[in-house]
């Protein structure tokens, strides 16, 4: 407690001092391009930490190594967290609740911005100091809370359909499916091939965690339903939403989705696809580069998600950098965030790990499109992706969704009952 008060007092002193210094800086360096002076609270230089999910590629560590070489007195230590987004959130919240300075720069899932900002666990950022105008607009919106910037995007994400191009071709399926019915029909043909023996048709992420919220939302949206309406009111107990959930429930029942997929997060699905167990897989763009280094190399196609009557719609995913309110060396942290979220760094993530960048220009860059022909389609899918609710109590909303969707997929409840219960759970949250 005392330490906290001391820190607050020290901060105000720094604020005043920095305010004075800034006036002088503003006139001497003539930098008015950002339209915003450097935020005076970002003071202190020295070692910091970067806290993010364990990277399945070496890019995160490579970028940090390059920074550390240039900044020997402001070294960044990477603290890898578990791959499960729910566990990442829990660890970051624990750190914030104890006001620990162990975490400096946080890699936040796009759905956490409001919660972290409302609790003042992260600092507001100087928007003028980041090239936000060059980034995909929906992605930038995920980094804002009440119109102010609290994080900066470094990875956008949109769901895509991976498919075994070799098997589709062999089975005479000319192009990837755009509807669920077409996907099932394609599987029926592929499954007749001797080399498809023992393969399953489709999987996504169905374990009870954030990925299930994403897959449920995509199924509902891709059947023309919504979870909340345009004004934010829950509206999930509808025939359209039922058609979406039924696609998943029936697919589990009829074996289109293999039983074990009820335990899949992103990585388990990727491994199943890479080891030749799946014809189709719903996952994020990072999978492409890893699959191209696996047994299915050269046999992987990428298409937009299918839907009920036509193309489906993706949930908006992604990761943003935020600065822990309780951290030290915030001047270093801000510089590191600029470096890590720069077009150059995110181009490295794209080139070396097929992570979708926030910068619009990279999606049309000829060299990148040559490497990843699906980039223009991915850009469209991210631009039209459906954001998950941007609410402070997102944790409660998503856990209600996971609870009910899981019960339906597991066969504990009918989809009609699950949607009825979800509607009532969400209504209770909406009216505290
Ligand atoms: C990806 C997405 C993120 C989403 C998560 C679900 O990491 O970028 O937004 O919440 O997957 O598992």
UniProtKB/TrEMBL annotation:
PANTHER family documented for this protein: MALTOSE-BINDING PERIPLASMIC PROTEIN, MALTOSE_MALTODEXTRIN-BINDING PERIPLASMIC PROTEIN
The keyword Disulfide bond is annotated on this UniProt entry: no
Pfam family, one: SBP_bac_1
Name the UniProt record assigns to this protein: ABC transporter substrate-binding protein
Transmembrane segments: none
Family assignment from sequence similarity: Belongs to the bacterial solute-binding protein 1 family.
Domain of life: Bacteria
Database matches in CDD domains: PBP2_TMBP
Lineage: Bacteria, Bacillati, Actinomycetota, Actinomycetes, Kitasatosporales
Organism encoding this protein: Streptomyces olindensis
InterPro entries recorded: SBP (IPR006059)
SUPFAM superfamilies given in the database record: Periplasmic binding protein-like II
The entry's keywords: Signal, Transport
Signal peptide (residue range): 1-23
């Amino acid at each position: 407690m005392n330490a906290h008060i001391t820190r607050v007092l020290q901060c105000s002193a720094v604020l005043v001092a920095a305010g004075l210094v800034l006036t002088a800086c503003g006139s001497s360096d003539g930098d008015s391009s950002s339209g915003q002076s450097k935020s005076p609270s970002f003071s202190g230089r020295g070692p910091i930490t970067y806290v993010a999910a364990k990277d399945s590629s070496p890019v995160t560590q490579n970028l940090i190594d390059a920074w550390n070489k240039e900044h020997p007195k402001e070294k960044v230590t990477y603290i890898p967290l578990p791959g499960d987004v729910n566990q990442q959130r829990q660890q970051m919240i624990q750190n914030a609740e104890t006001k620990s300075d162990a975490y400096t720069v946080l890699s936040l899932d796009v759905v956490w911005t409001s919660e972290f900002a409302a609790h003042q666990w992260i600092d507001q950022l100087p928007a003028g100091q980041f090239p936000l105008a060059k980034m995909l607009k929906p992605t930038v919106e995920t980094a804002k809370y009440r119109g102010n910037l609290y994080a900066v995007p470094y990875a956008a994400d949109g769901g895509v359909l991976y498919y075994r191009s070799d098997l589709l071709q062999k089975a005479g399926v000319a192009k990837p499916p755009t509807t669920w019915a077409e996907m099932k029909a394609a599987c029926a043909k592929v499954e007749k091939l001797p080399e498809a023996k023992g393969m399953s048709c489709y999987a996504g992420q169905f374990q009870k965690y954030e990925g299930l919220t994403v897959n449920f939302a995509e199924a509902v949206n891709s059947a023309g339903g919504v979870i909340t309406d345009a004004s934010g009111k829950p509206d999930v107990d509808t025939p359209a939403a039922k058609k979406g959930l039924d696609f998943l429930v029936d697919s589990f029942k009829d074996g289109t989705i293999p039983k074990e997929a009820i335990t899949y997060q992103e990585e388990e699905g990727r491994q199943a696809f890479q080891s030749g167990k799946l014809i189709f897989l719903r996952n994020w763009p990072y999978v492409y580069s890893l699959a191209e280094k696996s047994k299915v190399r050269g046999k992987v196609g990428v298409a937009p998600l299918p839907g009920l009557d036509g193309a489906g719609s993706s949930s908006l995913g992604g990761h943003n950098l935020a600065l822990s309110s309780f951290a030290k060396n915030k001047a270093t942290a801000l510089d590191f965030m600029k470096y890590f979220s720069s077009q150059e760094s995110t181009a490295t993530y794209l080139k070396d790990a097929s992570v979708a960048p926030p910068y619009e220009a990279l999606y049309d860059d000829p060299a990148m499109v040559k490497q990843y022909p699906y980039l223009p389609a991915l850009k469209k899918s991210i631009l039209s992706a459906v954001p998950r609710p941007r609410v402070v109590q997102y944790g409660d909303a998503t856990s209600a969704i996971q609870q009910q969707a899981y019960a339906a997929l597991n066969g504990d409840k009918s989809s009609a009952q699950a949607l009825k219960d979800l509607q009532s759970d969400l209504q209770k949250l909406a009216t505290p």
